[in-house]
Automatic annotation (TrEMBL):
Residues 45-93 form the SAM domain. It comes from the Eukaryota. This is SAM domain-containing protein. It comes from Rangifer tarandus platyrhynchus. Pfam families: SAM_1.
Amino acid sequence: MRGVAEAKEPCSLPMLSVDMENKENGSVGVKNSMENGRPPDPADWAVMDVVNYFRMAGFEEQASAFQEQEIDGKSLLLMTRNDVLTGLQLKLGPALKIYEYHVKPLQTKHLKHNSS
């Protein structure tokens, strides 16, 4: 088990772009394109695509829970609020932000694109 988490300077990778405009509330816009090495449709994401999505969104510590639980894109799109809040064993604050600002919008976007 790790000790106290160290604050890390944000690294800037030329091929990765994150909109840090809404960082205060955990709502960080991550461009969802092949530019970030992920397929555009979350249903096609592998486990590491999900992990990297949350790392890029500013949830470095919490991203490992998705890897430990083997959450791929299809699993992510099936997750309920309760799954995120309790099933991943995350702290409540980050879990709420992950669900409300990332999981739920990804699910909504996916449903809109696939319901026609």
